[in-house]
Amino acid sequence: MFAERLENKLLENIQKAIEWVGKLKRILPSGRISIKPKFTYPYYKRSVTSSPNAIEETVKILKEYIRGFAIVETDGLIYYTILLEIETIKKQKRPI
Predict the structure, then answer these.
(1) Where is 75: in which H helix or E strand?
(2) CB-based contact 35:59 (threshold 8 Å)
(3) Which residue has the higher pLDDT, 23 or 95?
(4) To 5 degrees, how large is the angle CA 37–CA 5–CA 48?
(5) Does the pTM exceed 0.85?
(6) For the CA atoms of the chain, what is the radius of gyration?
(7) C-alpha to C-alpha distance for 30 and 9, rounded to whole angstroms
(8) Residue 38 and residue 73 in contact, taking contact as beta carbons nearer than 8 Å
(9) 3-state secondary structure (DSSP) of residue 74
């Protein structure tokens, strides 16, 4: 787990966090990744949704490593539906 206060030196701390995860070394510049910020409220609310500034700075950093990325959002229903289907298959003892 990487923890750092983002208010000061936002870009620098996001860069540190991305480097700490260490996955960018494995991504080809021609590859694609997705960014999934937390948009569970109709507008930015501190400690509830992802900071627009943090998202913007993250995009700036990622553009240095990779050309293809997308900012994505779901309502969570798809994930819940997939989990429900997996549990049903497990109960029926079918291979997943």
Answers:
(1) none
(2) yes
(3) 23
(4) 40
(5) no
(6) 17
(7) 29
(8) no
(9) coil
